[in-house]
């Protein structure tokens, strides 16, 4: 069988980073080839070489056995290579259909854009994906999951024979992942080759035919997904065995209540929500996408205040109407959308980590102690194993997972009593996940009150002391001990007191 794609001895270096060291990769027709590796291993860089974003320093790329040059993304598209990038890159001011056909809009005789055809063509692609979306919806108003769907539609619109998906499910819920897998299987049957990058180990068994593992910019090996145990793939990735430590649930019966929410409501998003959180406790929030978990977090953080109800911090009612007030009240919120709320991409790692705690490292007249900041930043770079040539590297140049680690470091460093983490390990590799779980537990043991919102049930189960489940803006239950995936799913789909069929 000839390969559609063959990459041989690909080399790429950035200042201070040898990102690709003689990497080999090949793709067959109609296969799903998973590309795995820790954060910063070089996965996205290799795919940017294949899609014409980066020019390699060495090596060859062959398409259908012919050596090709891919100086631009357009050159790759013309050869049928489509990519859905890890960081979504849609134009927020344009609508869905305009984003899909940007730069190649159908025109009417006098040169005006044919809006009707533009929209109809977009609807046709969505129909092929078996989803429904109004093509005139502005992208800025879409959830991350929906934006992802638009990116996929856009890549499909190029009739790609090769489709690269760089962490496509990072922001999708279970139902949406199932939908995506249906689309992938259909494309596969049509002979499209798919390169699939993900940190979710269970997906590999579900969707991949072969798996190639990279470590530290180097090629480690390629195996058949079916006959390779996940533990073997993980040890190829991290170069060692990982052990799974289970959370011991601390006795919090005498602990103080740090946060209490009473009958919080806002519009149709939050309906009469009440719960409390103790010092030292990790309260997990599970639910389907759109259940209202992020809205609740944003309400507590003052980003979108509640219409009615009460929030108490350390037993005292507070009126929080802005994030600045929340931070003063000792509440931190790590947003699910790091690109827009979490990071200053043009600034360096040190500044980003230190941003939330400048006050503590300044003297009486506000001069910042740069040396101390450097020490703190280096400390967290080490603790979270952030792959960067140093603390002065621009954050925007780090790999996706490493950017996420910088956001986490920032909030770990900020001295908040109550910390809300919204999808903290999205895009984070298995090794670093374990490290983040350990740090969160350590913070709890120090007396911090922690809320973790996560769409990954194994993560919620592994981390939480109690689990709150939401459905359609309501809190449908709080499980303490003996929770399992089924119980959570039952509560997550419970509508108006009845379990959905
Ligand atoms: N434009 C760039 N300039 C400097 N360094 C870069 C650039 N792009 C990538 N790197 C570095 O190259 C290395 C590989 O990054 P890459 O994005 O390929 O990792 P990845 O395997 O996709 O990781 P993740 O799982 O976190 O997405 C990282 O150390 C990253 O910081
Ligand atoms: Mg990447």
UniProtKB/TrEMBL annotation:
Topological relation to the membrane, as annotated: Peripheral membrane protein
InterPro entries membership: AAA+_ATPase, ABC_carbohydrate_import_ATPase, ABC_transporter-like_ATP-bd, ABC_transporter-like_CS, P-loop_NTPase
GO MF, any single term: ATP hydrolysis activity
SUPFAM superfamilies (alphabetical): P-loop containing nucleoside triphosphate hydrolases
Domain ABC transporter, chain residue ranges per copy: 5-241, 247-497
Entries under Gene3D superfamilies matching the protein: P-loop containing nucleotide triphosphate hydrolases
SMART domains: AAA
Keywords: ATP-binding, Cell membrane, Membrane, Nucleotide-binding, Repeat, Sugar transport, Translocase, Transport
Annotated signal peptide: none
Annotated compartments: Cell inner membrane; Cell membrane
GO BP term, pick one: monosaccharide transmembrane transport
GO CC term, one of those recorded: plasma membrane
Family of the protein in this entry: Belongs to the ABC transporter superfamily.
Entry-linked PANTHER family: CARBOHYDRATE TRANSPORT ATP-BINDING PROTEIN MG119-RELATED, D-ALLOSE IMPORT ATP-BINDING PROTEIN ALSA-RELATED
Protein name listed in UniProt: Ribose ABC transport system, ATP-binding protein RbsA
Species: Sinorhizobium sojae CCBAU 05684
